[in-house]
Amino acid sequence: MQAVPEAMMTSLPSRICFIISPAADSTDAERYVLESARCALNAGILWIQYREKYASRRAIYSTALRLRELTKQFSACLIINDHTDISLAVEADGVHLGQEDLPLKEARKLLPNKIIGISTHNKDEASEAEKGGADYIGFGSIFPTTTKEIGSPKGPDVIKQIKNAVSIPIIAIGGINVGNAASVFNAGAYGIAVSSGISQGNIEQNVKQLLSVRR
User: Fold this and answer.
1) Domain count, the chain
2) Could you write out the three-class secondary structure of 110-167?
3) What is the pLDDT of residues 96-122, one digit of tens each?
4) Smallest Cα–Cα separation from 32: which of 211, 202, 199, 206?
5) Is 166 inside any structural domain?
6) What is the mean pLDDT of residues 176-203?
7) What pTM, to 2 d.p., does this model score?
8) What angle do helix axes 29-43 and 57-73 make, rounded to 10 degrees?
9) Hey, how many other C-beta atoms are within 10 angstroms of the C-beta on 125?
């Protein structure tokens, strides 16, 4: 499989995506999202993915709108998880879709010039996403994770196999942190999507350490 063209590489904002995902028992999810985003943006993150599984769609829209205003201040990319219509409504930079979400073909009709990423868990799903016109794939779980159920951990070496199946950027996800990020990049991932590896502990310190691994 050929290497990813440089033009496609530059369509993504950076090699590190911070996934902000409030817990089910969060007492003020919007505040948590905005404060986490501001800390990460201040530390140098240029790509935020907002993932909310528990709030109402109206609440998600409200938070996404404020998050869009915040990310614009830092010239950072905002991707909305799952909700193509909310991504469109707040003028986000794109949407990230799971295997059970709106089909890629239909999402592209709504977001013809935006970034669309697809969650994948095996070679067939990765190939299908590329054929459908995805800008990148999220692939995992690479390591054990409690943030989201995305299958058993596959280890970083599986990235080499996926690179032989697709030519679009691979964003590895699942249990990635400061201690293991280098192994993921060394295996050939274009980028990493990190949730608890940034949000747990000192956000700014975690971001700076990850950025020192690979920009």
Assistant:
1) 1
2) HCCCCEEEEEECCHHHHHHHHHHCCCEEEECCCCCCCCCCCCCCCCCCHHHHHHCCCC
3) 999 999 999 999 999 999 999 999 999
4) 199
5) yes
6) 97
7) 0.93
8) 20
9) 17
CA 118 – CA 81 distance, rounded (Å): 10
- Based on the residue annotation, tell me whether 119 is a catalytic residue of this protein: yes
Please determine, for residue 7, whether its predicted confidence score (pLDDT) is greater than 50: no
- Helix then strand count (H, E) for the chain reads 10, 8
Is 87 in the active site?
no
Say which of 38, 66, 148, 214 is annotated catalytic: 148
Catalytic residue from among 119, 141, 183, 195 = 119
- Average pLDDT on 186-197 reads 97
Residue 9, domain member (yes or no): no
Task: Flag whether pLDDT at 197 surpasses 60.
Answer: yes
Q: Could you tell me the pLDDT band of residue 13, with boundaries at 50, 70 and 90?
A: confident
50/40 Cα distance (integer angstroms) = 13
Domain for residue 2, yes or no? no
81/74 Cα distance (integer angstroms)? 20
> Residue 59: which CATH number?
3.20.20.70
Position 3 pLDDT exceeds 60: no
At 10, the pLDDT band (50, 70, 90 cuts) reads: very low
68 is catalytic: no
pLDDT above 90 covers what percent of the chain? Answer: 88
Residue 151 domain-assigned (yes or no) = yes
Distance between CA 109 and CA 132 in Å, rounded? 12
> From the candidates 51, 68, 114, 154, which is the catalytic residue?
51
**Six-digit token string for 101:** 């979400």
